[in-house]
Design a protein that fits this description.
This protein has 385 residues and is of the alpha/beta class. It is built from 11 helices and 17 strands. It has 2 domains: 8-18 and 274-381, Lyase, Ornithine Decarboxylase, Chain A, domain 1; 23-273, TIM Barrel, CATH 3.20.20. It starts with 7 loop residues before the first helix and ends with a strand. Bound molecules: ligand LLP.
Length: 385
């Protein structure tokens, strides 16, 4: 079984579990994204929610990316890491006054507004400061992303964005508000999208909507199509970098951008997903009635994706090359859902073996919790270890 390239000797002295980031792969991924977006002049706002590790953020900021934030604290983290406020977009269905005021004080690039009441509140708070807030309307396009239901966002039943039949009202409302300026349209249909052809109906919808808005005399400086490009969880060694070329080409071919109009993206997972692994140690190998459990020292508090979305993460035994056996790989948390994999083929496992849970760079470290009073896992980088 082909395994990732890990400095196992260096790992031996480090307390587990911990996140390990391949700095070189992150660099290569960013280089690929930059190269592919440059071809078409597209702009990138990295979705901070995927991973807000300060070193990762600093690295992405230093490559000239903007940031997509969904809370006041994400905006602060972006600024601290060096993202300029002029490249920050702020989305989220429940922006509070405190968060809106922070964003106004920092003069961020754009609020991605999700409802009429939010539009009115931003206008009111901006007026108090004598400012004009730039806004984009987040529209729920009712396009199916064909991904897990918990990470589908662009269906009419989801809580996100303006529904299509409220757009007329939004235009009327905007005409009355003097402290917001409409500059864009925003969409995001879901995450871990493996079949990129689902973006084609999104493009068709955006084209249709632009025609409709123009018929009402409304034009936009930019279109933002969100993120969502999936990664290969099955084969992180074979596909370390997603097919950005095909993804950006699809939008270039199918979206009818107007003259001078910019296209923005908010990729998260596809940028950081494959560069991270969760390294954990086998605590016990336990014989059950009909199966063998490999009990590790990482749990759902360190990586919640398998428990929350039944997500698959490839697991490698870094300490053993013995013939594979079948195990349930489980964590120590007092929850039956604290399972990383069932009936999983792993090189024969022993107490103290080190395992790598792969493709954990996105929505891994950032979703860690302190349940059971556990420590938040530390992070190490391949160039600093
Ligand atoms: N833009 C917006 C408005 C979003 O809601 C998201 C993700 C993104 C961009 C970035 O999407 P990405 O390129 O990373 O797919 N915790 C879940 C994923 C939640 C995604 C939430 N929104 C998971 O572990 O699969």
């Amino acid at each position: 079984m082909r395994k990732g390239n890990f400095p196992i000797e260096k790992f031996k002295g480090i307390e587990t579990p911990f996140y390990y980031y391949d700095a070189e792969l992150l660099k290569q991924t960013l280089k690929t994204v930059k190269g592919e977006t440059k071809k078409y002049g597209f702009l990138q706002h990295y979705a901070i929610k995927a991973n807000a590790n300060s070193k990762i953020l600093q690295h992405i900021a230093s490559e000239g990316f903007g940031a997509d934030c969904v809370s006041g604290n994400e905006i602060k983290a972006a600024i601290d890491a060096g993202f300029p406020a002029s490249k920050i977009v702020f989305a989220g269905v429940g922006k509070t006054n405190k968060e809106i005021n922070l964003a106004l004080d920092l003069n961020i690039f754009c609020f991605n507004v999700e409802s009429l009441p939010e539009l009115e509140v931003i206008n009111e708070l901006a007026a108090k400061k004598g400012k004009t807030a730039q806004v984009a309307l987040r529209i729920n396009p009712d396009v199916d992303a064909h991904t897990h239901e918990y990470i589908t966002t662009g269906l009419s039943e989801n809580k996100f964005g303006f529904s299509l039949n409220h757009l007329e009202k939004a235009i009327a409302c905007l005409a009355k508000l003097s402290n917001v300026k409409l500059i864009g349209l925003h969409f995001h249909i879901g995450s871990q999208i493996e079949d990129i052809s689902v973006y084609k109906p999104l493009c068709d919808k955006v084209n249709e909507l632009q025609d409709w808005f123009e018929s009402k005399g409304v034009t936009f400086e930019h279109i933002n199509v969100g993120g969502g490009l999936g990664i290969d969880y099955e084969d992180p060694n074979g596909s370390p970098i997603p097919d950005f070329a095909a993804y950006f080409a699809l939008f270039h071919t199918n979206l009818k951008l107007r003259a001078g109009q910019q296209l923005h993206f908010e990729l998260g997972r596809s940028i950081v997903g494959q560069c991270g692994s969760l390294i954990t140690r086998v605590v016990y190998v336990k014989e059950g009635e009909s199966k063998t459990f490999v009990i590790v020292d990482a749990g759902m508090t360190d990586l919640i994706r398998p428990a929350l979305y039944q997500a698959y993460h490839k697991i490698e035994n870094l300490s053993s090359d013995e013939p594979v056996e079948r195990y349930d790989v489980v964590g120590p948390i007092c929850e039956s859902s604290d399972v990383f994999a069932k009936d999983y083929e792993l090189n024969k496992a022993h107490r103290e073996d080190l395992l790598a849970l792969r493709s954990a760079g996105a929505y891994g470290e950032i979703m860690a919790s302190r349940y059971n009073c556990r420590e938040i896992p530390k992070a190490y980088f391949s160039d600093k270890i």
